[in-house]
Specification:
Blueprint lengths: L8 H14 L15 H10 L6 E5 L2 H15 L6 H24 L3 E5 L4 H13 L4
Parallel strand pairs: 1-2
Helix pairs in contact: 3-4
């Protein structure tokens, strides 16, 4: 994480599967930041459960960098620094953007304009979840 790299897929799938199994009575699951690579999504759907939809928080790199650097002032996270943030942007373009396109082709992407205020973004997310009965 400190180097801006991703955790192994086997570990991630095991953690998600365990969390879902331990909360089997839930109406659904919102998995933050996953999948980040196409293989993660494909294996998740094959080994864990089908994906109902993907919330994609769309925001410019400039806004995201500003927010992450601000978070880094108090978070204590070692990956909230300019160099690592730039690596994460590159990782997104190379590995995660194809995931969004994969699910977009299946009409499973719900795109949220995340450039607005917390309340504006929350309102969009709430509407998206409510429209799906969640």
């Amino acid at each position: 994480m400190e180097r801006g790299e991703l955790v192994s897929l086997d570990i991630v799938l095991e953690l998600i599967r365990d969390a879902m199994t331990n909360n089997a009575s839930s109406r659904g699951f919102l998995i933050d930041g996953f999948p980040r690579e196409l293989e993660q999504g494909v294996r998740f759907e094959k080994e864990v459960a089908p994906c109902q939809f993907v919330l994609f928080f769309d925001v410019s790199e400039a806004v995201m960098q500003q927010r992450l650097l601000k978070r880094g002032e108090t978070s204590g996270r070692v990956d909230d620094n300019e160099a690592t943030i730039k690596k994460r942007f590159h990782t997104f373009q190379e590995l995660t953007k194809p995931v969004i396109e994969h699910y977009r082709q299946q009409s499973k992407v719900v795109q949220i304009d995340a450039s607005g205020s917390v309340d504006a973004v929350f309102s969009q997310v709430k509407s998206a979840l409510e429209s799906r009965g969640l």
